[in-house]
Amino acid sequence: MTTDKYADEIESVLLSEDAIQARIAEMAAAVGEKYADVEKEVVLIAVLKGAAIFVSDFARALPIPSEMEFMAVSSYGSSTSSSGVVRILKDLDRDIADRDVIIVEDIIDSGLTLSWLMRNLRTRNPRSIEIVTLLRKPDAVKADLDILEIGFDIPNEFVVGYGLDFAERYRDLPYIGRLHPRMYS
Ligand code: XMP
Ligand code: MG
Fold first, then answer.
1. Where residue 95 sits, what CATH number does that domain have?
2. pTM
């Protein structure tokens, strides 16, 4: 069902709004249980811009209090794949030493960006650091990342919506879909 403002640009829906929200509720419950006894709020770190929508829903679904931090990084590579060479455009506003940190990601593809980010954040001596991602693509298994919660394993195709963009469009879709091929050309 694509009766929405981008209807004629989206070929098909991969994950409906209901499916996404139901899965987030499950993930948040599991994470909440794991961190039920931490002393300070967990620190959710989302990487702009893609994870902004997911972290908003995830934080509100979490049964425990959390703080929200954002980072912006640029990866040297094409717009649809990353090289693993990363530059920080916007850093955290706070120190994460001795804090329980959860990196909240929209999608892990090659995992190169995230591997770099994990190494970078570990040097700041958090008490713990884990990864929660809404989506994971097949190549991510090569990255050898320990992931606490994965929302959905998806096929190796380009998807948009729910924070994910193509040329900055479609982040505002409540669902995740496949772009109509004619939108690429
Ligand atoms: P790596 O490969 O480092 O990169 O895990 C993850 C980043 O790649 C982008 N990406 C996508 N963006 N639809 C998008 O809109 C996709 O299907 C897709 N696959 C990868 C995204 O920026 C993500 O953070
Ligand atoms: Mg993007």
1. 3.40.50.2020
2. 0.93
